[in-house]
Amino acid sequence: MIEVTLLGTGSPVPDARRAGPSTLVRAGDQTFLVDCGRGVQQRMAAAGTSASALTALLLTHLHSDHIADLGDLLITRWITTFGPDPHPLSIIGPPGTAEVVEATFKAFGHDIGYRIAHHDDLNAPPQVRVHEHTDGEVWNHGGVTIRVAPTDHRPVTPTIGFRVEFADASVVLAGDTVPCPSLDGLAQGAGALVHTVIRRDLVEQAPMQRIRDICDYHSSVEEAADTAERAGVGILILTHYVPAPQPGQEDEWRALAASRFDRQIELGDDLHRVLVHPGMGVRPAG
Ligand SMILES: [Zn+2]
Ligand SMILES: [Zn+2]
């Protein structure tokens, strides 16, 4: 079984009720954070985990809303890991990730210096291992395998989706993308597909062109549902809502997805949790 928790269901627009894009995936004794949006660590605490408990950080792309709290995560993991020989955090992302991580450490260079000078048991800066990939298997440890494939979020490029497999259960995390054959392939037969979505019908009515521009490179609810249908996934999990649904409006979103995909559809607020069981026999967390 794989457990998926929507830590942050928001978007670049600050929202009182929604943290920035982040999803927690627990498989066996491994914990993966997928993207690292605004406020992610408060939601991780609410979900019963922490920066120091992460097995790896997976980044779908380098848009600000998906990496906003990277510095906070890296520094917090560093100062809250108390063992003598801290395990480096694996960070898997598209090309460009190493540069972003390096620049983040540079931005926090003063902080890192203060803490090393102050604490006798902090002798080295935070340790990470960055792996940049666009395709293929990127993880194979303790029964968990992770595969990536390119997505299409142009002009943002390169961008990737992840497929996490554990004990015959599988979850695909599409990130921000329009429908594309490589995502269809990655999601084929998966137990669940976590997909970021926008309401094209609403966003197209915005008076500002800059807002309407986001239609260029995101899937609508219907397009995400079409992808789920083509790939034959068991559960479609929607997140990264634009505009954010107000309380009571979730059914409208669900109906749009249900017009194209007739299996289980999940959406909700931050901390919404879905259990993905082996094969297609899938059901939500009780
Ligand atoms: Zn994006
Ligand atoms: Zn985004």
Automatic annotation (TrEMBL):
EC category: hydrolase
Annotated PANTHER family: ZINC PHOSPHODIESTERASE ELAC PROTEIN 1
Keywords from the UniProt entry: Endonuclease, Hydrolase, Metal-binding, Nuclease, tRNA processing, Zinc
One function term, GO molecular function aspect: metal ion binding
Enzyme Commission number: 3.1.26.11
Protein's UniProt keywords contain Cell inner membrane: no
NCBIfam families, alphabetized: PRK00055.2-4
Organism field: Mycolicibacterium hassiacum (strain DSM 44199 / CIP 105218 / JCM 12690 / 3849)
Organism phylogeny: Bacteria, Bacillati, Actinomycetota, Actinomycetes, Mycobacteriales
Chain segments annotated as transmembrane: none
Task of the protein: Zinc phosphodiesterase, which displays some tRNA 3'-processing endonuclease activity. Probably involved in tRNA maturation, by removing a 3'-trailer from precursor tRNA.
Reaction(s) catalysed by this chain's protein: Endonucleolytic cleavage of RNA, removing extra 3' nucleotides from tRNA precursor, generating 3' termini of tRNAs. A 3'-hydroxy group is left at the tRNA terminus and a 5'-phosphoryl group is left at the trailer molecule
Quaternary state and interactors: Homodimer.
Protein name: Ribonuclease Z
Gene that produces this protein: rnz
CDD domains in UniProt: arylsulfatase_AtsA-like_MBL-fold (cd07719)
Family: Belongs to the RNase Z family.
Highest taxon in the source lineage: Bacteria
